[in-house]
């Protein structure tokens, strides 16, 4: 949120419009003047469309971050109170662990149908459906512990929260493309992505502080799940009141809103991009994008770069997500309590969120994706190898192992989390002009699938009580998977920047059109280019 505030008040935007005359805004060189409708007056291109950004984009992103945080809090919120929840609801540890797999299972089943919902209902309505399911799931889980003590109702509430997840995970690239200009797009994707991990961090640390060996009665459980329900319902209300259907003006020439306005005006769409794609031999970029999600994905069947990236994304991030769900059980044989394990994961994930914030502006500036992935995966291999050796040879006492856990988790998460926005942005670049939600959904679907497989496998291996050899074997297995991911990035993935190339082609065409016109004539917005009014409801 501090980063969002800096974006709102800062004067460091690289693309400041020159003073211009407009019948709606007048002549000004201070884009922030006037109504909140436009932070930047922007410019009118050859198609008569004004490109500009609004400060409301920061509020929309903040609501999305709160949505993701509350949803992923519920995803791992039971992982560090397994013993207390088992006793309170009279169920097994395996059943409690399966609550986390409900999220992954629902996402694997419903991710691509949700993409179709995005296409038909739009960003606002899809977001509201997700927020509603997220809030309903939290309320049902509150009822499951107070006044009832019903595991089946807890599982039902988790299922509704999982439905809310399918409208959340794949949204960062689409939200960034819809609301943010090119110079802020990767940062917006990074901020949206880190909300998932921040929610997991808080979900690992907060519940053990409320429900623990000292406080394990109905009051403690009601406080834990009641606070979750209140926050989720508050975020849903904020989304209903403050998230419009679309921005006043498209923020860039490759945004979905720009394409919609072009279609309304009957203009030829994406000619510059087609010529750029032809010049780069990008056969996967088709002149006409298929209408349905599965057709769009089928059109990418020969896009080897994208398919390999989806596999890498799932294996790398999904396996680590599975470990976070069973972390408390894995390190318990080393004398680390559930509350300590929650604090360890909280510290690590907050540090990883800082890494996401740092990588966003760097991606916007350098437009390089492959080298950061290689560097991050290389560091992960080294860290996991050292951790596995320490787990084998260090005396298993809390005095020795708690510092090791803090350092290992901190380094692992710092290296892992930035791969999420990097991978999502690269997937969008590789599949342009597909809608941003489609490649993002494919990546997150792969993540959820491997997370589901990993969580189920780890839960079955650990059972009701984990041992040291089982934890060591899990770390070695994940280390091997990361080595495979590193090899694929080095030898199989090629960096293509189709969306970026399309933007540069369109800018060059617009500059050429300006050179051909009368430079002394003030720029006047054509009739109908003032933008489209926004209805919040």
UniProtKB/TrEMBL annotation:
Keywords: Membrane, Transmembrane, Transmembrane helix. Residues 58-497 form the Major facilitator superfamily (MFS) profile domain. InterPro entries: FLVCR1-2_SLC49-like, MFS, MFS_dom, MFS_trans_sf. GO terms for molecular function: transmembrane transporter activity. The chain crosses the membrane at residues 58-76, 96-118, 125-144, 150-175, 187-210, 222-243, 306-332, 344-363, 375-394, 406-428, 440-462, 474-493. Signal peptide: none annotated. It is a multi-pass membrane protein. Its main location: membrane. Residues 30-39 have a biased composition (Basic and acidic residues). It is found in: Membrane. PANTHER family: MAJOR FACILITATOR SUPERFAMILY PROTEIN-RELATED, SOLUTE CARRIER FAMILY 49 MEMBER A3. This is Major facilitator superfamily (MFS) profile domain-containing protein. It comes from Neobodo designis.
């Amino acid at each position: 949120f501090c980063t969002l505030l800096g974006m709102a008040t800062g004067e460091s935007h690289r693309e400041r419009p020159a003073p211009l005359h407009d019948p709606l805004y007048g002549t000004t060189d201070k884009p922030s003047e006037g109504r909140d409708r436009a932070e930047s007056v922007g410019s009118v291109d050859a198609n008569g469309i004004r490109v500009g950004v609004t400060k409301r984009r920061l509020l929309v992103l903040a609501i999305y971050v709160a949505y993701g945080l509350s949803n992923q809090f519920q995803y791992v919120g039971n992982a560090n109170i397994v013993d207390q929840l088992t006793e309170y609801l009279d169920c097994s540890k395996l059943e409690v662990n399966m609550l986390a797999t409900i999220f992954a299972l629902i996402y694997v089943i419903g991710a691509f149908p949700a993409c179709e919902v995005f296409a038909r209902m739009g960003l606002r309505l899809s977001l509201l459906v997700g927020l509603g399911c997220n809030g309903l799931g939290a309320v049902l889980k509150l009822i499951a512990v107070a006044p009832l003590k019903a595991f089946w109702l807890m599982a039902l509430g988790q299922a509704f929260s999982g439905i809310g997840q399918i409208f959340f995970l794949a949204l960062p690239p689409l939200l960034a493309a819809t609301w943010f200009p090119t110079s802020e797009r990767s940062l917006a994707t990074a901020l949206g992505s880190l909300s998932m991990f921040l929610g997991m961090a808080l979900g690992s640390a907060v519940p053990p502080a409320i429900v623990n060996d000292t406080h394990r009665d109905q009051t403690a459980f009601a406080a834990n799940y009641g606070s979750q329900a209140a926050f989720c319902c508050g975020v849903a209300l904020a989304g209903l009141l403050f998230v419009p259907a679309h921005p006043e003006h498209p923020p860039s020439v490759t945004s979905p809103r720009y394409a919609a306005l072009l279609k309304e005006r009957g203009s030829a769409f994406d000619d510059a991009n087609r010529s750029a794609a032809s010049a780069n031999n990008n056969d996967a970029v088709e002149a006409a994008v298929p209408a349905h999600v599965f057709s769009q994905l089928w059109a990418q069947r020969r896009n080897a770069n994208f398919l390999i990236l989806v596999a890498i994304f799932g294996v790398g991030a999904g396996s680590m997500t599975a470990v976070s769900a069973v972390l408390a059980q894995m390190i318990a044989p080393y004398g680390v309590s559930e509350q300590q394990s929650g604090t360890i994961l909280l510290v690590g994930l907050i540090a990883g969120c800082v890494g996401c914030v740092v990588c966003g502006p760097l991606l916007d500036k350098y437009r390089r994706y492959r080298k950061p992935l290689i560097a991050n995966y290389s560091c992960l291999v080294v860290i996991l190898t050292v951790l596995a050796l320490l787990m084998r040879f260090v005396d298993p006492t809390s005095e020795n192992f708690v510092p090791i856990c803090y350092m290992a988790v901190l380094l692992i998460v710092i290296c892992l989390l930035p791969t999420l926005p990097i991978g999502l942005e690269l997937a969008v670049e590789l599949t342009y002009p597909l809608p941003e939600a489609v490649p993002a959904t494919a990546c997150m679907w792969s993540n959820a699938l491997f997370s589901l497989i990993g969580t189920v496998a780890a839960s079955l291996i650990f059972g009701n009580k984990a041992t040291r050899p089982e934890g060591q074997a899990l770390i070695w297995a994940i280390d091997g998977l990361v080595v495979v991911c590193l090899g694929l990035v080095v030898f199989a993935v090629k960096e293509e920047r189709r969306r970026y190339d399309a933007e540069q082609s369109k800018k060059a065409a617009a500059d050429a059109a300006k050179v051909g016109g009368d430079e002394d004539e003030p720029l006047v917005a054509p009739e109908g280019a003032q933008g489209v009014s926004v209805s919040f409801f």
